[in-house]
Every structure is written in C-alpha cells, then in structure tokens.
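Translate sequence into structure tokens.
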Amino acid sequence: MLATTSAGAAPASAADLDCSDFSTQAAAQSYFLSRGGPSSDPDRLDGDGDGIACESNGCPCNYSSTPSPPAPAPPVDADSDGVPDNVDACPAQPASTSDGCPLPPAPPTRRAVTSFYAVVTAVVDGDTIRVRRGYSRTYTVRLIGIDTPETKRPGTPVECGGQEATSSMFRLGFTRPRDSNRDGLYDGKGGKGRRVKVTTDPTQDRRDQYGRLLAYVKGAQGSFAGKQLRAGWAAVYVFGDPFEQLAAFQAAQGSARGAGRGAWAECAGDFHKPGDRLK
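Result follows.
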C-alpha cells in the first residue's frame, strides 16, 4: 500500500490505489479525473459509478466531473518597465490601475457540480420532492429556479394554485399517483417513483437555509421545473446570482403566460394569492 498523499496531490505511482491512499475526497477526485474519470476508473475509486470518487473520505471535497484547468503562465517583465511582456494589451475600458490597465471584473462564484441518479420517494409540494440515491441515501430536493404557490408553510394559508402545483408534481414523480379524496387532484404517491437525474448548479448554493439540496431534477420526459413552468403552476424564481438555465425557464414561463395556462388564468398570475381549496 502506498503512503497517504497530501490533499490535492496525486500519488507518485498509479498502481491500483484505494480511497485510504488519499487524505481527502478532493485529492481522490483530482487523481480520479487525471486517470480518465468518470468514463474510466482503473483504480475502482468510484464504487457506485456516479462520477464521484471516495465519497466516504473527509473534506475538502470536489464533486466536479472535469479536471481543474492548468494555472496560467506567470507574467514576465523582461524589460523591467512594470508591464508584463506576455500579457495582451489592455482592453478598451477605463483605466483603474497604476499601469494603465483596468482591474478585471470579479468572476461569478462557481461551485463544484454534483450529479447523480435517484428515485423519487415523496412529493412535498410543487417545487420540493424527496429522492433516494442508492439503497439508503436520501435527499430533500428544492428545485432550482422556480417558485410554486404554498400549501404547507406554517402561518401561510394554502395559496391559489398550490394544490394543482402539488398534483402536477405527483404526476411527474410517480407512475400511478393517487387522488385519495376524488377531487380531481393527485395527493399521494402510487405505483413506482420515477428515476431521475439530480444536478446542482455551479452558480447556486448547494443547500438552502432549511438544509434542502438545491438542484435541477430531470426525468425521462424532461425537466421537472420546466414542466411545472410550462403547465403554468410555477413562476421563475431567482435568488442571488442568476442560475444557468434561466433563459430556458423564462421561455417556458412565457409560453404558459401567453397561453393562459395554470395559475396565469386561475389566479390572475398571482402565485401567492390565498386560495379557496383545501385538502
């Protein structure tokens, strides 16, 4: 067995390593990617095939599926004039540094992306579900980019379109959802939970203030959030930085609004108007 490596460094040898050879998950992931992961895993570090190596190792963690880009070449100032010789001319922007070049804009915050397959186990409401990954790992997932009328928030009455949005999510999440009170709306799981792909967004936080995983959910028929938007039971919701699928979500919302579908007709487009239907 090789000696444990430091975080972020690959072991000197590439001979059949184990997760115990890495001090952190991030170090294992970097090595895994350098050896061709996630499409190739010669050291068998990704036991469940989800593209993430050594998930039981401690953090720092790295859930990216692409190797880190190489560091840029250091600046060279051969003539000692204070201006790097191997840097392109300054862009046409107002100067803000002593050498006449503008300060570069701050890049958007980008986080590691996690993507995995799971099975829907429960529907909380129109924008929140629960899923099971593998045999025992479970997540409450709050769909990124949409907001649906409330049905279960303490101190908030059931809002117009809330039960319809939840019914729509039951239809997306299960093969034979139930309508227990025969009011025309699905309110319980039935049949099998659908298999979905759960993917986080590098521009968004990994979890919200309630500990829910923030992610996109995609089934065989497409994006759950996109379908809620096109049906008119959800509105586009941006919290902080714009999310990566914003343009597509806005187009789906525009389609529903233009056609008068869902809450755009029944609730006059007010997704937080108190409703009059109770389960």
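Note: The longest helix spans residues 246-259.
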